[in-house]
Amino acid sequence: MRFFIPQDTSALACGAEAVAQALLDANIEPVRNGSRGMFWLEPLLEVETAQGRIGFGPVSDKDVATILKALESDASSHDLYLGAVDEIEYLASQQRLTYTRAGLGDPLCLENYQALDGFNGLKRALTMSPQQIVDEIKNSGLRGRGGAAFPAGIKWQTVLDAGATDSQKYIVCNADEGDSGTFADRLLMESDPYQLIEGMVIAGLAVGATQGYIYLRSEYPVAHRLLNTAIEKAMEANFLGDNIGQSGKSFYLEVRLGAGAYICGEETSLLESLEGKRGMVRAKPPLPAIEGLFGQPTVVNNVLTLAAVSTILAQGAKTYQDFGMGRSRGTLAIQLAGNIKRGGLIELAFGVTLREVVENYGQGTYSGRPIRAIQVGGPLGAFLPESQWDTPLDYEAFAAIKAMIGHGGIVVFDDSADMAAQARFSMEFCVEESCGKCTPCRIGSVRGVEVIDRIVANEDRDNNMILLHDLCDTMEQGSLCAMGGMTPFPVRSALTHFAQDFTGAGKGDN
Amino acid sequence: MGSSQTEQQTIAALVDQYRDLPGGLLPLLHAVQAEIGHVPDSAVMTIAKGLNLSRAEVHGVISFYHDFKTQPVGRNRVQICRAEACQSMGSRHLESYAKQRLGIDYHQTTDDGNISLEPVYCLGNCACSPSVRVNDDVFARVDQDRFDQLIADLGGE
User: Fold this and answer.
1) I want to staple B142 with a disulfide (CB 3.0 to 4.6 A). Which of A49, A233, A349, B132 is the partner?
2) Contacts of A73 (CB under 8 A, 6+ apart)
3) A308 backbone φψ class: left, alpha, beta (φ>0; ψ -120 to 50)
4) pLDDT tens-digit series, residues A132-176
5) Which residues of chain A are within 8 Å of residue B131 when distances are taken between CB atoms?
6) Per the CB < 8 Å rule, is A220 touching B140?
7) Hey, which residues 338-397 in chain A have their CB within 8 Å of chain B?
């Protein structure tokens, strides 16, 4: 019997280390796997038995003795018994293309990765010309998963065509996953880091780049450690470095840590930071694809975009393209978070409705109270009232209701939430995290906090309401990037759909 | 006197190590902070010289990023997540409790130098909120009792 207990951040945060220690004390050395993404079951203890892989969860160190005892007779008699992990509805009903390997084994085991189809995409890419690889990505319909949803193949084509034949080009992975309610990048990096590495090497082959950087936020120490070890091992096995797999092609990769600035998730600010500067947003044009890192042609893609590249190259553009709806192709890594009973990662084809996700997967709030608002797409995403929960998760459908999918984070609030306080927080967050380059964002957010305070205090209410909308217009239209340009989204949605919270009567105590 | 001399030697050695790394200022500052606990003002001149930057440029980078501290901080860093997912699970209450429990506000250190309290915006543990990070460990579903226990584990006082 082999035992598995994750080394994923959320599993550890829920007490996985103590469970591992309890197993060691019982002379059992568990495999430290990644998480399956069912965080409501973490720490999830899995056991490989003659009947397949069964699970227990959420487990604490105190449960280990009774589980071991139950395993000797009838495992299903244990209170925490979950049955075959693969058959848990939450997992079994997903359409996993990117997270197929997540949680199956030790994320750093190269043999394991290859046994589960790892590096098949890279092997195929090594037989193709750069243009063929770029065409494959174009045909897949893959769009950037960071939030902007720009077609990845078109970005790659621009970088492939940019610069002189011998110019130094770069692949930069945006792993500055700062949106509240998101953890998909972290989960991927902690459960299947080689998939990201593989995607970056393929991107390098496609556009002619020999150096890559993963810009990782400093809030992710576990991912940092795992990525560094994975890169070392991939170097040793010649999946990175000089003359990859005797192909004559080279690619080097380095992880760089951010330093706690949300704005560095914006691609031009990220590039400034990578160059060792303040993370100030750059005006576009020039596009980073033409003048990016150190002034050279640069692909900047999100972790999930680059991870999907491995799948697309391994399984072909057509397979990927067959998932999804409209212009949103493939799968979306939905992250269900906040006040939710069963939070976690849900990978599904685009097109599922918000209500299906929150009700079927989430099973309502953690607190047991009714859901009041759902914020989709991070701190710059709108707060959606119940009337909008039937919107399908599709980039265009969300844009049509002045909302955005962004990086796929869903944060649920129960009926104790004070939406005026949340709107104020949106402005406050912008004050805290604005890079300061453009006035609408830098000053507008400060004024936004003040005006919301005056509205809630019932000071000259009508005029301040006009002022707030005017301020939001200025921020939306005059800001250099999405930070100032979209902070009004949550503010306005709160004003529109939860107007009663702004009357100063006070709502809830959240 | 002696310690500040060692400090200068440490900084100089790190500058040598990172000066040729493309865009090496952030990795260098992280390394200085890891060694010394903060980035002292006295480091700015050495770093500027070593990387061929102006002092203003180095200072500008240090002051831009939340992570870099210019003053000594506590032996332990306690961060409370202030982002939306944690708010939806009551982190605002936890914040005020933590401040009252420790007798300090954000960006302050307890009198015994044991704990510095900081806000953080998302730890990527949003399905198990509210989250607290103590040094390099993240903790899930932290209520007042759990917070007390985490603080007790850090000793001090």
Assistant:
1) B132
2) none
3) alpha
4) 999 999 999 999 999 899 999 999 999 999 988 889 999 999 999
5) 13
6) no
7) 338-340, 343-344, 366, 375, 379
Region A116-135: mean pLDDT is 98
Task: In whole angstroms, give the CA distance from residue A26 to residue A55.
Answer: 18
pLDDT digits 0-9 by tens, A14-23 = 999 999 999 9
In chain A, the percentage of residues whose pLDDT exceeds 70 is 99
Last residue of a domain, one of B35, B64, B93: B64
**Cα–Cα distance, A257 to A191 (Å, whole number):** 19
Give the integer Cα–Cα distance in Å for B146 and B140: 9
**A181 touches B: beta carbon within 8 Å:** yes
B64 at the A interface (CB within 8 A)?
yes
Given CB atoms, is A183 within the 8 Å cutoff of chain B?
yes
B71 within some domain: no
The residue of chain B with its CA nearest to that of A337 is B127
Reduce the DSSP state of residue B132 to 3 states and report it: strand
Q: In chain B, which among 108-127 make CB contacts under 8 A with chain A?
A: 120-127
Which runs of E-coded beta strand occur in A20-142?
45-49, 52-56, 81-84
**pLDDT tens per residue, range B53-108:** 999 999 999 999 999 999 999 999 999 999 999 999 999 999 999 999 999 999 99
> Are B129 and A337 an interchain contact pair (Cβ–Cβ within 8 Å)?
yes
Q: Among B17, B34, B64, give the residue marking a domain's end.
A: B64
Same domain for B101 and B32, yes or no, is: no
Q: Is the pLDDT of residue A251 over 60?
A: yes
Residue A423 CA to residue A418 CA, distance in Å, equals 9
What's the rounded Cα separation, in Å, for the pair A100 and A160? 30
* Within a domain: B27: yes
Domains, chain A, ordered by start: 2-89 (3.40.30.10), 110-321 (3.40.50.11540), 324-414 (3.10.20.600), 419-503 (1.20.1440.230)
Q: Which of B84, B92, B120 sits opposite A338 (nearest CB)?
A: B84
Q: Which helix (H) or strand (E) holds A449?
A: helix A439-456
CATH number for B118? 3.40.30.10
Distance of residue B103 Cα from the nearest chain A Cα, in angstroms: 22
Q: For residues A510 and B137, what is the distance between their CA atoms, to the nearest angstrom?
A: 26
Length of chain B: 157
Decide if B107 touches A, using CB distance below 8 A. Answer: no
What is the chain B residue with the closest CA to A434? Answer: B64
- Asked if the Cβ–Cβ distance from B131 to A13 is below 8 Å, we say yes
Cβ-nearest to B67 among A39, A218, A275: A218
Identify the bridge partners of residue B117 per DSSP, sorted by sequence position: B78, B108
Q: Of A212, A201, A211, A197, which is closest to residue A133 (Cα–Cα)?
A: A201
Residue type, A307: A
Please name the residue ranges forming H helices in A129-192. Answer: 130-140, 152-161, 184-191
CA distance B1 to chain A (A): 30
Q: Which pLDDT value is given to residue B5?
A: 86
What confidence tier does B157 reach under pLDDT thresholds 50, 70, 90?
Answer: low
- Residues B80, B57 share a domain: no
Name the domain count of chain B.
2
Which domain does B89 fall in, by range? 76-153
